[in-house]
Amino acid sequence: METMTHPKNQKPKRYTRLLILAILLLFSVIAIFVLAVLIYAKILGPPPLAVPQSTLYYSDNGTLIGESDNGQKRYWVPLKDISQNSINSTLSIEDKNFYYHHGFDFKRMAGAILTDAIARKKVQGASTITQQYARNLFLTMDKTWTRKISEAFYTIRLEMNYSKNQILEGYLNTINYGHGAYGIQAASQLYFGKDASNLTLGEAAMLAGIPKGPSIYSPLDSYEKAKKRQVTVLHSMFVNGFITKKEALAAAQQKITIKGQFPVSKERFAPYFQDVVKQELKTKLGLDERTIALGGLKVYTTLDINQQKIAENVVKDTISNQSAIQLGFVAMDPSTGNVTALIGGRNYQASPYNRAVQALRQPGSTIKPMLYYAALNNGFTPVTMMKSAPTTFHFDNGKAEYTPHNFNNEYADGDITLAQALALSDNIYAVKTNLFLGPDTLVKTAKQFGITTKMKAVPSLALGTSGVHVLDMVHAYSLLANGGKEIEPTFIRKVVDSKGKVLYESEPEKKQILNKDNAFVMTQMMTGIFDKRLNGYGTVTGASIVGQTTRPYAGKSGSTNTDSWMIGFAPQLTAGVWTGYDNGGEITLTADKLYAKKIWVSFMEKALQDKPIQMFNPPKGVIGLPIDLASGKLAAPECSKSSRLMYFVKGTQPTETCSSIKTTGKDGKHTNKKTKSWLNKLFHWF
């Protein structure tokens, strides 16, 4: 007898098969979806990890002097420079299974869901370090499904394309620790005043507890709550096997000192200098504003902190608070071109206008060393004689005339040497020289010395009537100080990007551009402003400060109605000062006229007080001879009341002694029987 299956018994089997098929289909769809997501994530490749990072500025000895940020101070450090205490405490409290999952800790997620269900509120988080890192990098803190899905996708991309150590490093450098400190290094500096590599277990545990609620667990807001949270972190480290119970207790009892200050104050150090550095980053490296401000650059500058402090203190102590006088100041190492100190004004907050590099001011007689260097190249020597007397110069085919004046309208009314003309700053001698050479010669020579501003080829250019920058003038004098080698004013030694790649490194060229023999002769003549033996119808221009000098200097002062200058150098340091009013007003007060010289000599003496005294060593092509200052001839005992060692390019030195050109007249006085030199004849028509 055949058994018959009732149709009703087939329905459960059919439903079972359909259910299995549905489940398989669902899993297939899920698998396909997951596979598609993974493939898409792989196609997209690694997500960019660039985050705003503070750009840091360092002095020449590596001291941090400034930074730029957008309110989030972040100093990126590699994982190897983060203490193991910090790594372990963060892993323990945030994601103990970090190295064993692929971005999602499903067991922890299930536990958190169960805990939240029992408590009927969200009491436990389950985000992994990778998820948090994805959120910090790419997302807002909005609690929406869209954000959660995006977070999951970025988590997958991070895990697929970066190693665990890279992810952990990124997380520790981006997490918010409160008070504008983003990242472990910034937090370490803010709270404890130290690097992340030096954190103790107690300090690391306290920091690890902050990210859960920076406004709650910051020790600056509530040390008590921060301490309780620290104990929680230490307990988790003990439970998770990172430390022993003894270590946990010792760390909990450790006395912790909270600093509460970032390494760089809100008021930048040497702000005018740093402004120039930022401009150099734009012009020399071609970096944009955002990269400069938030690119995580490390900019190593040439600033000498000690010299900068000396300069700032000298300016503060010298210029009266009641004076409206402004200044520009630059100091430079003449052997390298490194700018070691710079001041662009008396108060950066009141006026960020940088008078050291932006202001165009008349240099006055500080232009004369360039004029007389050109003269040396054209047959002049330190004893070339010309007459100092009131003179009206006619030029432009007689269509124009120019009548310069000496200071206080004092003149020798006779012949003086080039060396004395420079020491006394004789204007008549300077204009005669300029016209003899042709004003175009001074224009070309100034350009050779590194003057970047345009100059008018007119007779008065010899007296500094075309505007210049302080930086250019200090650069020009540094060429004389180093024997005529070209050096570019340098503010940046090296720039390193956030990944440690060197973007720029200065390589100063030392091309010989001046005649080294004439450069030395010029330098030696410039020491004359401090030598009272060169006094004549007036006193040498450095007489008021020579009593404060303790070593050899070469220099030149300069003044116009609206500008006061002093620039000079020792072999190892050049400095220049300009003082005046921003509105171009006339300087009338005697005290205001003396500021430039006082600031210069005080700075030089203090900046070099611990340095060896160096002499200006003559090159082989020059010869030093004692010169009778009255005649400009070789000194001889019978006629030299005053003599001075002067240097000449070999072959141009005088050969006659002062006694060979003098004889006693009927009145018993010495008279000069020699005819005037060819050069004096040439200028006789003036």
UniProtKB/TrEMBL annotation:
Occurrences of domain Penicillin-binding protein transpeptidase (ranges): 328-582
Signal peptide: none
Catalytic activity: Preferential cleavage: (Ac)2-L-Lys-D-Ala-|-D-Ala. Also transpeptidation of peptidyl-alanyl moieties that are N-acyl substituents of D-alanine; [GlcNAc-(1->4)-Mur2Ac(oyl-L-Ala-gamma-D-Glu-L-Lys-D-Ala-D-Ala)](n)-di-trans,octa-cis-undecaprenyl diphosphate + beta-D-GlcNAc-(1->4)-Mur2Ac(oyl-L-Ala-gamma-D-Glu-L-Lys-D-Ala-D-Ala)-di-trans,octa-cis-undecaprenyl diphosphate = [GlcNAc-(1->4)-Mur2Ac(oyl-L-Ala-gamma-D-Glu-L-Lys-D-Ala-D-Ala)](n+1)-di-trans,octa-cis-undecaprenyl diphosphate + di-trans,octa-cis-undecaprenyl diphosphate + H(+)
Entry's localization field: Cell membrane
Gene3D superfamilies per UniProt: Biosynthetic peptidoglycan transglycosylase-like, DD-peptidase/beta-lactamase superfamily
Pfam families hit by this protein: Transgly, Transpeptidase
Matches recorded under InterPro entries: Beta-lactam/transpept-like, Glyco_trans_51, Glycosyltr_51/Transpeptidase, Lysozyme-like_dom_sf, PBP_transglycosylase, PCN-bd_Tpept
Keywords assigned by UniProt, alphabetized: Carboxypeptidase, Cell membrane, Cell shape, Cell wall biogenesis/degradation, Glycosyltransferase, Hydrolase, Membrane, Multifunctional enzyme, Peptidoglycan synthesis, Protease, Transferase
Keyword hit for Cell membrane: yes
Domain Glycosyl transferase family: 62-237
Cited NCBIfam families: PBP_1a_fam
Classification via PANTHER family: BINDING PROTEIN TRANSPEPTIDASE, PUTATIVE-RELATED, PENICILLIN-BINDING PROTEIN 1B
Name of the protein: PBP1A family penicillin-binding protein
